[in-house]
Amino acid sequence: MGPGGRGRGFGSHRLWLAWITANHLHGITGLEAYDLALFRQITK
Q: How far is Cα 28 from Cα 17, in angstroms, rounded to an integer?
């Protein structure tokens, strides 16, 4: 897994989708644990 032969910024959608989704979930749960008030404000 990686950017491939074309260099940075070019990823195959089907290969990167799982990583992007996991990264978003990690950020969401991290924000909830770090600053619950901000999390609640953003998710209203």
A: 17
